[in-house]
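re: ur question from the group chat, yeah i did fold both. here u go
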Amino acid sequence: QGQLVESGGGLVQPGGSLTLSCTSSESIARFMTLRWYRQAPGEQRDLVAAIIAGTTTHYLDSVKGRFTVSADNAKNMMYLQMTSLKPEDTAVYYCNLRGTVLGDSPDYWGQGIQVTVSS
């Protein structure tokens, strides 16, 4: 089964930046959707950003213009670059790969990594 591992989280002050990385044990080029989710304390898990079919991107409205999702197929990694961070961005962030071009339905999740934005 595929494994995903997030890294790059931590504590940052408001207005600061962090880049999260997600390393996949399988080729990410074969997955239809590459996604980042987050779950804040006491909140439901929300979709933050996604790459669909390797071209189209989607962002949660509250992070548009501040977050950038990208992928490096050669390294089997995906990234979430976060700038102008706000306290409300504090959450556990998860990467997710779902579906392949062959039509099967794998659903791989990372363990999650904490991002805390605080003065």
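okk and heres the other one u asked abt
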Amino acid sequence: QVQLVESGGGLVQAGGSLRLSCAASGSIFSINTMGWYRQAPRNQRELVATLTSGGSTDYVDSVKGRFTISRDNAKNTVYLQMNSLKPEDTAVYYCRLQTRRVGTVVEYDYWGQGTQVTVSS
């Protein structure tokens, strides 16, 4: 079993910065993707950024150039540095871990409990 513990959310003014952290513990296989998703009220959950164990990243267009995802493999922790925040970035941010063993296709999918990010105008 895997646990994901998020931290770093809060209230910030537009133009400000926040850094989210997600620490994973448990059975994490060598092939994995860690990422951040967000869900604003009345909206569907959307991908914000992902980072694979191979180092590939993906970002939603609206955050490119402002957000940076990174990871500390020794700590099994993924970070999301969010700069130049906008009111439309307000949402609950969720950490996600997808992981599988080498040579298998069965993927395990875990989510964190979410952390609120509120950007005031």
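fwiw on the second one: The chain has no helices and eleven strands. The mean pLDDT is 95. idk if thats what u expected
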